[in-house]
Amino acid sequence: MSKKKGLSFEEKRARMMEIFFETKDVFQLKDLEKIAPKEKGITSMSVKEILQSLVDDGMVDTDRIGTSNYFWAFPSKALHARKRKLEELESQFAESSQKKEALEKSIEKSKIGREDTADRAALLKELAALRQRKEQLKTEIDKYRECDPDVVEEMRPSKFSNSDVSSQRRF
After folding, report:
1. Which domain holds residue 45?
2. In-domain check, residue 137
3. For the purposes of burial, counting CB atoms within 10 Å of the CB of 31, is it exposed (0-12), middle (13-18) or buried (19 or more)?
4. For residue range 85-108, what is the model confidence (pLDDT) as tens digits?
5. What's the Cα-to-Cα distance from 61 to each of 55, 56, 95, 97, 150, rounded to whole Å?
6. pLDDT at residue 3 above 90?
């Protein structure tokens, strides 16, 4: 005997939506708790949780009328939601395509004057040599920083007060 496997959460959501789309009716929670187990094999214990997740995702509408909560979802609303999402994605795609074209044009524009020539190669080589020389000079300056008169002056203590001078003369 094989054990019957339960439905996944997504399968339950899809089956719950089928109930709404097939009947095109408005339901209360207690009605759905009766219909779902019979028609779609969804346990009545999980109907409320599934219904709440569908409401949270905007796939099922709900309204409180008097003391009762009513739930409904019509196929046309799902179609309109998909159309809106498609239009939104198409506009994002068009915007991204325009940005891509603009970037490609700027790349082409920046390549002008940067063609690989003998003069450019020589200048790049000279630039690299000058940068290396600059780094060497910086390290040399750092090596002699201790002897810099400005640095030595900063390291000296401030002028002695009169009492300090007189106490130093005694020793």
Report:
1. 9-72
2. yes
3. middle
4. 999 999 999 999 999 999 999 988
5. 6, 9, 32, 36, 77
6. no
